[in-house]
Design brief:
mainly beta, globular, 11 strands
Length: about 120
């Protein structure tokens, strides 16, 4: 089974940018997807963005569309979440997940999360 680890979070001001990284390791699935989710205190975890490794097609939540962009480095088995024009409402713990393409995210592997805090 593959596992993932996130990094790149931090404290920034509104309008700033951050790039989160999610590095995957372990035995690769034949076809898999990687995704980002976030959770603010007292709120449910919500979908942010995901990418199908086989074709590089990305999907974004409406709340981050046109501000966040996914990319990948095949050699490093790493996906990046470029976050631009950050807003205070983006403050949350960001989690990376990996799962077989088309399967449930809950059946996949999750990282420990990285904190993103955006001040006004």
């Amino acid at each position: 089974q593959m596992q993932v680890a996130e990094s790149g979070g931090g404290l920034v001001q509104a309008g700033d940018s951050l790039r989160l990284s999610c590095a995957a390791s372990g035995r690769a699935f034949t076809t898999y997807m990687m995704g980002w989710f976030r959770q603010a205190p007292g709120k449910d975890r919500e979908f942010v963005a995901s990418l199908r490794w086989v074709n590089g097609v990305a999907y974004y939540a409406d709340s981050v569309k046109d501000r966040f962009t996914l990319s990948k480095n095949n050699a490093k088995n790493t996906v990046y979440l470029q976050m631009n024009n950050l807003k205070p409402e983006d403050t949350a713990v960001y989690y990376c997940a990996i799962a077989r393409d088309g399967s449930s995210w809950t059946a996949g592997s999750w990282g420990q999360g990285t904190q993103v805090t955006v001040s006004s």
